[in-house]
Specification:
The protein has about 270 residues and is α/β, with parallel strands linked by helices. It has seven helices and 14 strands. The protein folds into two domains: about 70 residues, membrane protein fhac (Ubiquitin-like (UB roll), Roll); about 140 residues, Rossmann fold, CATH 3.40.50. It has a nine-stranded mixed β-sheet with strand order 6-5-4-7-10-11-12-13-14. Strands 1-3-2 form a three-stranded mixed β-sheet, with helices on one face.
C-alpha cells in the first residue's frame, strides 16, 4: 500500500511539472559587464598623442638626404633644386610632394619619387631624360633627348652628336622640337638610339636631305638613309669597317651604304 502512494505522488508531481508554462519560470537576469567606452576612448587618445609626440621628436629629424638614379645632375644640384633641407621632421617637415613638384618642373626629369628611410634619411629617386644629341641653332645648341624633347639651350658645345641642316619651326623647353624635316628627324633619332646601343658615335650628322651624311671625323663620312645606317649599326657591319679603317690609319673617305649587306668604302672624300 505504501508503494502505491509513493508511485502516485511521483506521477502527480511529474504531471504538475509538465503543466507549468516555461514562460512563467522566473529566470535570473544575466549580469552584463559595463563597457567602459569613455575610458577606452581616453586611452586611445593618449596612445595617439604619445605616438604623435614621438614621431615629432628630434629622433626623426632629417640628417641625410640621399639621391639615386641621377646622371646629368650631381647630388648637390638635385638637393638644391628640390630645396630638400636637413633638420626638419622626416614626417611633417620634409614635404615630399613639394620636392617632387619642384624637380618635375625641370625638363630633365621624367619621374621623381621621394621616400623615407628611418629614422633620419630622406631619399630622392629620380629618372632623368638621356641627352642624346644637339641641334645647331644659330650660334647656340639645342640639347635634345631620344624623343626629340628640348632639354636646354646652350652656347657651349655640349660634346654630343650635332644635328645640322634642320629648319626648326618650334622650340620650347620640355616639348619635342618641331622641324620641317620632321620625318628625317624622327628616323635619325631612332638611328641615334641604335648608335647608343651599338656603342658607336658620330661627331656630326647633316640631316638636310633624305640621304644623310654622318661624320665620324671631319674627313670620314658615312652616307645613307637613317634606316640603312641603323641596319648597318645593328648588324655590327659598320663598326667593323670603321675599326678596320682606323687601325689602317685611314681617316679620309666615304662609306656608302645601300640596301645590300656589305659596306663599301671609297677613299675619295666628297
Amino acid at each position: 500500500m505504501k508503494d502505491y502512494y509513493e508511485d502516485y505522488e511521483e506521477i502527480y508531481e511529474q504531471e504538475a511539472y509538465d503543466d507549468i508554462d516555461f514562460n512563467q519560470v522566473k529566470r535570473e537576469p544575466k549580469k552584463r559587464r559595463k563597457k567602459h567606452y569613455l575610458r577606452r576612448f581616453v586611452i586611445l587618445l593618449a596612445v595617439i598623442a604619445a605616438a604623435g609626440a614621438f614621431l615629432s621628436s628630434g629622433f626623426f629629424a632629417v640628417k641625410t638626404v640621399e639621391v639615386e638614379g641621377n646622371q646629368y645632375y650631381d647630388d648637390d644640384e638635385i638637393i638644391n633644386l628640390a630645396d630638400a633641407r636637413t633638420g626638419v621632421n622626416l614626417f611633417w617637415g620634409a614635404r615630399s610632394s613639394d620636392i617632387k613638384d619642384r624637380l618635375m618642373a625641370d625638363p630633365y626629369f621624367v619621374d621623381v619619387t621621394v621616400h623615407r628611410k628611418l629614422p633620419d634619411t630622406l631619399v630622392i629617386e629620380v629618372e632623368e631624360r638621356d641627352q642624346i644629341a644637339a641641334i645647331t641653332y644659330g650660334d647656340s645648341y639645342i640639347v635634345i633627348d631620344e624623343e626629340g624633347v628640348m632639354l636646354r639651350k646652350t652656347s657651349v658645345d655640349p660634346k654630343l652628336t650635332l644635328l645640322t641642316g634642320l629648319t626648326v619651326s618650334k622650340l620650347k623647353v620640355g616639348e619635342p622640337v618641331e622641324a620641317e624635316e620632321a620625318a628625317t628627324l624622327a628616323s635619325t633619332l631612332q638611328m641615334l638610339n641604335s648608335m647608343k646601343d651599338g656603342d658607336f658615335f658620330f661627331k656630326k650628322i647633316d640631316v638636310s636631305q633624305v640621304v644623310i651624311r654622318a661624320y665620324i671625323y671631319d674627313t670620314l663620312v658615312v652616307k645613307g638613309t637613317p634606316k640603312q645606317m641603323m641596319k648597318a649599326i645593328d648588324s655590327g657591319n659598320l663598326q667593323k669597317v670603321v675599326n678596320k679603317l682606323i687601325k689602317s690609319d685611314i681617316r679620309r673617305g666615304t662609306i656608302n651604304l645601300g640596301d645590300h649587306n656589305y659596306v663599301p668604302f671609297s677613299p675619295d672624300f666628297s
